[in-house]
């Protein structure tokens, strides 16, 4: 069961990030950015689909759609940062940057998993995530080292989202078991590299790294912020209102 | 067609255009990874370019249509993820086709498909499809798309 739980967490973080980012479609600050964020969202939906296919195979009963559309908040295990509202463009960029830096390092390690399915999906995702990191990183620098106002705004975004970064490096029973057996990643082992990416980027962006204060936790146990429920109510509306509807 | 001639299937699939870039076929794109003849049926392994590429479903349907119209009904499509698709699988001939069509082919140096200049500016790492980035030429000033290397 832990392999299923482990894979589901990866799938959920991709799915919820994708759904959240898709809200930018047709509302981007420029046409190029609208297209960029929508494409990133699409990559993440694709990654979520790949991991959910494997979850469904491990489960042997429920389909990919059952997992995406027929679970409630407490049955989702995505990082809390992924469900946070988009806010303004700077908020979205900070969220994307912090998570893409983690995803990049996580998939780099996971592509060496002893589990063939996980390693294949990770290698595939890694190619895409590299672009997500490059893109969000370049915006961090442009906004941080931009005008006085853009610097102030993105610093505020960083300060308020920082509390959600602790979850990236939490290890519970499932993580420990899976990483010990060589199937998954010991998240603590990528913390140093994550810090390096963050610190280099922040110094180039003329931004100050927030101090670790109270760190949010709970998503591994299905505990979420209020925002997830609202996101799910929109994402799951159609299959809930019209069960078994066909496209 | 039950004789197990996989070359013929490759030939037929080479007539199925990429839904987004119709100037190249799904074979030239490199998404058809393998064709085997097992138990009187063709097993066609396909890999997506990008995880979320919406064209995957379309070209699966196009492949089914092409084969069925050519009297082949004993086949099965299988989606595989490993090895992950890479632009390295594109031949030089395919890259030439892209360039002629107006898309800068995957390469370390981005070339303007209009005037062939190598002096270009990246506008965005994301273009009209997941597989392309957006650029403009510093010489002829035309905007164009580039097939990203992955």
Chart the SSEs and their pairings.
The complex is a heterodimer of chains A (247) and B (150).
Chain A: H1 2-22, H2 31-59, H3 64-69, H4 80-83, H5 89-110, H6 116-144, H7 148-161, H8 173-180, H9 191-204, H10 227-235, H11 237-241
Helix pairs in contact in A: 1-2, 1-8, 2-6, 5-6, 5-7, 5-9
Chain B: H1 6-13, H2 26-29, E1 32-38, E2 41-46, H3 55-69, E3 75-79, H4 92-101, E4 103-104, E5 120-124, E6 132-137, E7 143-147
Parallel strand pairs in B: 2-3, 4-7
Antiparallel strand pairs in B: 1-2, 5-6, 6-7
Fold and architecture overview:
The complex is a heterodimer of chains A (247) and B (150). Chain A has helices spanning 2-22, 31-59, 64-69, 80-83, 89-110, 116-144, 148-161, 173-180, 191-204, 227-235, 237-241. Chain A is mostly helical and 247 residues long. In chain A, helix 2 packs antiparallel against helix 6 (116-144) and helix 5 (89-110) packs antiparallel against helix 9. The radius of gyration of chain A is 18 Å and the shape is globular. With 150 residues, chain B is an alpha/beta fold. Chain B folds into two domains: 6-85, GMP Synthetase, Chain A, domain 3 (2-Layer Sandwich), CATH 3.30.300; 90-147, no CATH class. In chain B, the strands form two sheets. A four-stranded mixed β-sheet of chain B has the order 4-7-6-5. In chain B, strands 1-2-3 form a three-stranded mixed β-sheet. In chain B, strand 2, helix 3 and strand 3 (75-79) form a beta-alpha-beta unit. The longest helix of chain B has 15 residues, at 55-69. The termini of chain B are far apart. The model of chain B has no long low-confidence stretch (mean pLDDT 91). The interface between A and B is medium-sized, with 29 and 23 residues.
């Amino acid at each position: 069961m832990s392999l299923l739980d482990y894979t589901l967490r990866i799938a959920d973080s991709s799915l919820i990030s994708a759904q959240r980012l898709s809200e930018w479609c047709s509302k981007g600050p420029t046409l190029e950015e609208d297209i960029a964020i929508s494409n990133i969202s699409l990559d993440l939906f694709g990654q979520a689909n790949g991991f959910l296919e494997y979850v469904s195979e491990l489960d042997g009963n429920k389909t990919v759609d059952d997992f995406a559309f027929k679970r409630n908040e407490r049955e989702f295990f995505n990082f809390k940062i992924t469900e946070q509202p988009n806010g303004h463009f700077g908020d979205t960029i900070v969220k994307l940057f912090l998570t893409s830096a983690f995803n990049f390092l996580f998939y780099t390690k996971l592509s060496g998993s002893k589990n063939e399915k996980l390693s294949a999906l990770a290698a595939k995702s890694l190619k895409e995530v590299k672009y997500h990191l490059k893109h969000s990183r370049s915006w961090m620098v442009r906004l941080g080292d931009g005008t006085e106002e853009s610097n102030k705004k993105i610093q505020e975004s960083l300060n308020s989202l920082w509390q959600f970064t602790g979850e990236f490096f939490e290890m519970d029973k499932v993580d420990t078991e899976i990483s010990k057996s060589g199937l998954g990643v010991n998240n603590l082992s990528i913390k140093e590299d994550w810090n390096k990416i963050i610190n280099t980027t922040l110094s180039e962006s003329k931004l100050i790294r927030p101090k670790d204060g109270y760190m949010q936790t709970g998503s591994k146990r299905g505990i979420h912020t209020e925002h997830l429920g609202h996101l799910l109510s929109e994402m799951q509306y159609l299959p809930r209102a019209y069960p078994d509807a066909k496209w | 067609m039950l004789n197990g001639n996989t070359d013929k299937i490759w030939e037929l699939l080479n007539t199925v255009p990429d839904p987004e870039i119709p100037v190249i076929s799904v074979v030239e794109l490199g998404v058809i990874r393998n064709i085997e003849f097992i138990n009187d049926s063709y097993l066609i392994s396909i890999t997506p370019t990008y995880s979320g590429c919406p064209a995957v479903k379309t070209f699966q349907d196009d492949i089914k249509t092409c084969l069925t119209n050519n009297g082949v009904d004993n086949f099965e499509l299988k989606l595989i993820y490993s090895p992950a698709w890479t632009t390295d699988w594109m031949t030089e001939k395919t890259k030439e086709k892209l360039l002629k069509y107006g898309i800068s082919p995957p390469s370390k140096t981005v070339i303007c498909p209009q005037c062939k200049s190598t002096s270009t500016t990246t506008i965005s790492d994301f273009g009209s499809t997941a597989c392309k980035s957006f650029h403009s030429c510093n010489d002829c000033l035309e905007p164009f798309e580039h097939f990203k290397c992955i």
